[in-house]
Every structure is written in structure tokens, then in C-alpha cells.
Specification:
single chain; alpha/beta; Alpha-Beta Plaits; Rossmann fold; 3 domains; eight-stranded mixed β-sheet; four-stranded antiparallel β-sheet; 19 helices; 16% strand
Length: 485
């Protein structure tokens, strides 16, 4: 995947990612709220050896001895020798092992200090336990571990409390900020993971770039999705100045400049599956070609589910089927549409053997007759993956133009259609991506088409209208000047 693909994934799934991240933040905050606050109280002890009146060498030896003993004393703090008196004194409802898990003793490196920390849900209780542990540890060392030989003698080791424990007003856990941040990170990671999974599992075509990864044939154009397409399928005629109509003109231009050998320009328009916009694409492309002054024939070659006659509002009872079985001549079946040189050959009655008719010698003769007279012949054919009609007709023409619907056509379906054409020896001229979204990460931008001349229904351009308006103003000004004179 390229960088733009990752950006598209984020753009397409940003709501999902944002929702999961917010849920993660809320989950972290909720978890923190459910946790019982824990407070830590600490006290510090100083270990020394009694050296009253001793020489300097004895002082050094005493300090070294104390430093060596400190490492052993740290382990004594969490034993029953120290903690049982604390439990009895404070009346704690806890065992030695339970209290030991909440008492921590450490010593800084190369010092004679012992730091004792106690964790408890009550800050006052934590301080009381820490101070009681300090006193009990003093007694354990001086009266038991370092007990003098005689009762009147004093223990050689002295334990001094340098910093008594005080109750803390700030809990050490839970770390609310950390839990919220972790929850947000987990939610964000989950959202990104689901977004990537959706992208990997989504095998539909969304953009023009998706087509380029499947075939080396050109993308001839992109047509945006129009929710009113069923009400006004012929957008080039109904709203010729609209951006969507201009996209069909861009398709027309790309088709005109295809590098093809000389000969009749007869093209088949098909798709991989139904409902991908092939019929509306064919009809609008035919109208756009006729706008240039070219003679265009639009043939409804979908003898199974014809749509062209309905879209163009013509009688479709007599058409291609009747011509192929010899009932009427092709010239008699053609119907002129609009004011331009656009002629339509509807499908006629639905026959029982469409593939045989389309592959017959009569079809060859029909195409020859149309190709000899018209500049362009467009044939709307059935989907390639459902029947062989499009491949059969395509083998008799310059090639096939495939319509693929954004967000609907699956990549394997388009690949299957390409293989069907290749197996039949039919040239695939290019792909038209239909139903492209106008908003979102996969949106298809038309740009502005107000610059220059834009054709209206009657063939008048915006440039012509501006010139006429200026001429009218000049004429009126001249009349006013004459009247004043």
C-alpha cells in the first residue's frame, strides 16, 4: 500500500477510529474510577554502630560494618519478627504475609539508610503502620538480632528514625491520567486495526487507482454517482451544463483519441455484472458524441434485458431482433433521436436465442451497414459474467469498453470479465468507473466547467450568450445617444 492508500483508509474510517478511541478513553476513566485509591507512607531509618570515644580507625570500621549489615536488615523488615508486633499493636485484621506484601524496604547503594514504605487504602493507616514498623524494627535489631552479651550492656547497633512517616493527601494509584491515556491508545489501535482489516477484506472497486492495479488498459473516465439517475438517466440532454454531463464529454474525448487502426469505430459497452451503469453510460456517451456533429448509431444489443428504448423514450417493439431474423431492414428499424445525427436501433422483441442471433452472419451484415454510414456505433451489451453475448458481439467490433461501479463491482468480478474478453480474443479498450462518490475519501472531483464555452440544449454556448448580451448593450447605448441628439 502507498501513502495515499493509508490516508484513504483513515479518511474512510475516521468515524469508527474516533468512536473507538473515545470509548477507550471512557473505558480507561471508568476503570480508574472503579479502583480503590492507594496511599503510600514512607519512613527512613539510619543504621549506625556505637563508637563513643573510639579512634578514627574504629569509626571507619563501624561505618563499614553498618553498611554491610544494612543489606541484611532490609530483608528482616518484612518478617514476622518485625510485623507481628505491628499487627498486635495496631489491631490490624491482616496476616503477616498480607502485611508483608504491602511493606517495602530498600536501601540506597553504599549508604546506611533504610527506606520503609507502606501501601494502604487509608492514608492515616499507612502512616501509622510505617511508623510502627520502624519502632518494631528498632526493637528487633537492638533486643534480638544484635542483643548484647549482658543485660546491662547496650546493643552495639543503633537504629535512628531520621524521617517519620506522615499521611499523604495524594493517592499513588490508580494513575488516572495514565489509565485514560492507555485506554485511548488501546481504542485507537483497535480502531486502526479494524479499519485496516475492513480495507483488506473489502475487495470492491472504489477509485480509479483500483482499476490501474488490475489492468494495464486505460481508465477512460469517471462518472459520479447521481441519486436521481433513474429519474433523469440522460444527464447530457437533461442538464448539459452539469458537471456530470461534462464527465461524459471527457469520456467522449478520451474515446475519440484512442490509438486505433483505421476502420469503422464500432464499440461495445458492457460490464462485469448487472446494475453497474453500462446502459446509461452508453446512451449519454452517444449523445455526447452526436453533439460534435458526428453521425452516431446507438444499438441496444442487450436482447435479454433491454433498457435503451425506455431511457430515450422511443418505441422499442421493432428493432435489432427483427433485423437479424430478416423481418425488417436495418434502415427501417433505425429511429432518429433529437436534433443531432443520433439514430437508435432498439432491441426489439426478446428472442429465445440471443447469443446465436448476435453471433450470426446477419449481425455481421448489420454492423457493416452501420459502420459504412455512421462515424460511431455504440452497442449496449449484457454483462460479461452472466452471458457470452458481449464477448460474441465484441469479437465483431473494435473492442469493448467496460463499466465498473465504484463501491459495487468486486475486483475479482472485473478480473473475471477481463479474462472472458481475453479468452474470446476481444480487445478491451478501457474502463469507465461509474457511481463514484462525490464526497468522502473516494470522492471524484469534476472541477469547474464554467470557464470557456458550455453548450446548452439548443447548441448555443455561454460565450455566444455573453457576446450577444454585450452587443445588445451597445445597441441600446447607441439608441439612447441618438435620442439625446
Amino acid at each position: 500500500m502507498e501513502l495515499r492508500d493509508y490516508v484513504r483508509v483513515l479518511h474512510r474510517n475516521w468515524i469508527l477510529i474516533l468512536v473507538l478511541m473515545v470509548l477507550g478513553l471512557a473505558g480507561g476513566a471508568g476503570y480508574a474510577a472503579l479502583q480503590q485509591p492507594k496511599y503510600v507512607a514512607s519512613t527512613q531509618l539510619y543504621v549506625s554502630v556505637r563508637t563513643e570515644g573510639a579512634a578514627t580507625g574504629d569509626l571507619v570500621q563501624g561505618t563499614t560494618f553498618a553498611r554491610q549489615m544494612v543489606t541484611s536488615y532490609v530483608d528482616v523488615v518484612g518478617t514476622a519478627l518485625v510485623l507481628e508486633p505491628v499487627i498486635d499493636e495496631l489491631g490490624l485484621d491482616d496476616s503477616v504475609s498480607g502485611l508483608s506484601s504491602r511493606v517495602t524496604a530498600t536501601t540506597p547503594l553504599n549508604t546506611v539508610l533504610i527506606d520503609v514504605s507502606v501501601t494502604d487504602g487509608d492514608p492515616e493507616q499507612a502512616a501509622a503502620i510505617a511508623n510502627a514498623v520502624a519502632v518494631s524494627f528498632q526493637d528487633a535489631v537492638q533486643k534480638t538480632l544484635e542483643q548484647p552479651a549482658t543485660e546491662d550492656a547496650v546493643s552495639p547497633v543503633r537504629i535512628t528514625v531520621t524521617e517519620p512517616a506522615i499521611a499523604s493527601s495524594t493517592p499513588t494509584s490508580p494513575n488516572v491520567r495514565l489509565l485514560i491515556v492507555l485506554g485511548g491508545i488501546i481504542g485507537l489501535a483497535l480502531g486502526l486495526g479494524i479499519a485496516m482489516l475492513r480495507t483488506v477484506l473489502d475487495n470492491r472497486i472504489h477509485t480509479l487507482h483500483d482499476i490501474e492495479t488490475l489492468t494495464d488498459r486505460p481508465v477512460l473516465g469517471g462518472i459520479a454517482y447521481d441519486p436521481d439517475a433513474t429519474k433523469r438517466p440522460l444527464i447530457v440532454h437533461a442538464d448539459p451544463r452539469s458537471p456530470r454531463a461534462e464527465s461524459f464529454r471527457s469520456l467522449r474525448t478520451n474515446l475519440q483519441f484512442l490509438n486505433l487502426d483505421s476502420g469503422p469505430r464500432i464499440f461495445v459497452v458492457s460490464s462485469a455484472g448487472p446494475g453497474e451503469g453500462k446502459s446509461t453510460t452508453t446512451a449519454n456517451l452517444a449523445i455526447a458524441l452526436a453533439e460534435t456533429g458526428a453521425r452516431v448509431a446507438l444499438v441496444d444489443g442487450d436482447l435479454r434485458l433491454p433498457r435503451v428504448a425506455d431511457y430515450l423514450g422511443i418505441e422499442g417493439g421493432v428493432g435489432l431482433t427483427d433485423v437479424l431474423i430478416g423481418r425488417v431492414d436495418v434502415a427501417d428499424a433505425l429511429q432518429k433521436w433529437g436534433t443531432s445525427d443520433l439514430y437508435v436501433l432498439p432491441s426489439g422483441q426478446v428472442p429465445p436465442n440471443p447469443s446465436e442471433l448476435l453471433g450470426s452472419a446477419a449481425m455481421d451484415q448489420v454492423l457493416k451497414s452501420l459502420g459504412d454510414y455512421f462515424d460511431y456505433v455504440l452497442i449496449d451489451a449484457p454483462p460479461l459474467l452472466l452471458v457470452t453475448d458481449a464477448a460474441v458481439v465484441g469479437s465483431k467490433t473494435r473492442g469493448v469498453i467496460l463499466a465498473a461501479a465504484s463501491g459495487k463491482t468486486k475486483k475479482q468480478e472485473l478480473s473475471g470479465a477481463l479474462r472472458a474478453l481475453e479468452n474470446a480474443g476481444v480487445q478491451m479498450l478501457g474502463v469507465v468507473v461509474t457511481m463514484l462518490p462525490t464526497k468522502g475519501p473516494d470522492s471524484y472531483g469534476y472541477g469547474s466547467y464554467t470557464y470557456g464555452s458550455t453548450h446548452d440544449l439548443d447548441g448555443e454556448t455561454s460565450t455566444d450568450r455573453r457576446k450577444a448580451k454585450k452587443a445588445k448593450k451597445a445597441k441600446n447605448a447607441k439608441k439612447r445617444a441618438t435620442a439625446r441628439a
